[in-house]
Write a structure and sequence with these properties.
By secondary structure, the chain is α/β, with parallel strands linked by helices. Helix content is about 40%, strand content about 20%. The radius of gyration is 21 Å and the shape is globular.
Length: about 270
């Protein structure tokens, strides 16, 4: 950034207060829109890191790579939306989680068969609970909960892979219109790729990245450490990127919808 000589930064981790001041070589404070935008991003980045630290989520130094936790700008969202639409992935932009949840239930017919993929995003929005536990929807998971995995496992796999509607999330979306999903077991990947009749992804815009290479970096350096910590706490078993799905384009027009949410949701 031309003309900028130094950044003076004071931070109070307890109050999450930050004093930021750019000065030129004459000691004059610079307050251009460009500088202000950059400072706002740095403040958001630092606050997110402080929140992770406060909740003991720094399981690895790689979590320090918090550029992957910052929401995309409106310009990035528009660019990504245009690229996804060109690849037969319909995009809806939601202002927040509540708006996204409302949009989902506007899309899904009342009696439709629905399978909810395991997702921190869906859990955070209460979508999983609403579909699978309220009794108001034709939930595949609710049916599977009554089955015996020892004797009916193959049937359960088929039910989870071929629902009428499948709802989940992804781990990275590129501004060039590609989608990346990482998985340990791969249980959701068949439905995502082709076998679900309709697919809805709910995605926080912090998951938007410029390129496929950036998407892979996001998964390895940001998503995996957080998911590993979550899995260890929940199941006593860590996570890993054993299977990977990259969607370059949707073959069936109208099959896939992505709801981009202007809220930091999931990993």
């Amino acid at each position: 950034m031309p003309g900028l000589i130094r950044l003076q930064l004071e931070r109070n981790e307890i109050e999450l207060e930050t004093i930021l001041r750019w000065e030129d070589d004459g000691g004059q404070t610079l307050q251009t829109a460009e500088v202000r935008g950059w400072l706002d991003s740095e403040l958001m980045n630092w606050k997110y890191k402080a929140t992770l630290k406060r909740n003991n989520m720094f399981t690895t130094p790689l979590i320090e790579t918090t550029k992957f936790a910052i929401l995309a700008s409106d310009v990035q969202i528009k660019r990504t939306m245009k690229a996804l639409e060109a690849n037969n992935i319909h995009v809806i932009v939601a202002e927040n989680g509540a708006d996204a949840k409302k949009r989902i239930f506007e899309i899904i017919p009342a009696e439709a068969e629905i399978f909810t993929s395991s997702s921190v995003t869906l859990n955070a929005l209460g979508i999983t609970e609403e579909i699978d536990e309220s009794g108001h929807y034709n939930s595949v998971r609710a049916k599977m909960a009554l089955m015996d995995r020892k004797t009916q496992n193959r049937e359960m796999q088929k039910m989870g892979a071929t629902p009428e509607y499948m709802i989940g999330s992804v781990h990275a979306v590129t501004e060039t219109g590609h989608v990346i999903i990482a998985s340990k077991t791969g249980s959701q990947l068949a439905g995502y790729a082709a076998s679900a009749a309709h697919l809805i992804w709910v995605v926080g815009t912090q998951k938007i990245v410029p390129t496929l290479e950036d998407g892979m970096e996001r998964i390895e350096e940001y998503t995996l450490p957080l998911e590993n910590a979550r899995a260890l706490k929940a199941f006593g078993v860590g996570s890993s990127v054993d299977k990977l799905l990259i969607v370059n384009k949707e073959f069936m027009p109208g099959r896939t919808t992505m709801i981009l949410v202007k809220e930091n949701l999931g990993f």
